[in-house]
Amino acid sequence: MLAKLLSSSAPYHLLSYASVTGITLWHSFIGGPVAFKTLPRQQFGLLQSKLFPIYFSLQTVLNGICLLTTSNRNGRIIFIIGLVCGLLNLAIVGPWTTKIMNERHKVEKEEGKQYNEPGISDRLKALNKRFGMAHGCSSIINVAIVLSLLAYPFVSSEIKF
């Protein structure tokens, strides 16, 4: 009985799906917003820069496990979306956003102004624009993961009601 249970992909699939969904929903709608409202902006940015590599790694790996443990065609599509999007945020968009954020913090310190104060330099304005673009890309990628994970129970024949 135990050998059969351990050799089945079902528990690994369910645990991975539940974990990636819980982590993604928690960070997107609870942990991130509460930290944003609670911490000073630069501390929030530092916290996110430390959490995001872990968060994006978990999204990538857990979607990968779900992909390997599903036999459902729709499920495979969903988990490919999650895996690719997680990997994009982990390897490209997340580091790009963090680099711009760190540059912006440095320029703010040099100029003695916050990014949103009147009379900021053209350099800081350009960094603001780049940061908005990078952060927007990361957010859109994260929304794609959220939507795909929430769609899974509705399109999967592996989940029985």
UniProtKB/TrEMBL annotation:
InterPro entries: TMEM205-like (IPR025423), Xanthocillin_Biosynth-Assoc (IPR053009). The chain crosses the membrane at residues 12-30, 77-96, 133-155. GO terms for cellular component: membrane. Residues 15-106 form the TMEM205-like domain. It holds the Pfam family DUF4149. PANTHER family: LATE EMBRYOGENESIS ABUNDANT PLANTS LEA-RELATED, LD23009P. This is TMEM205-like domain-containing protein. It comes from Rotaria socialis.
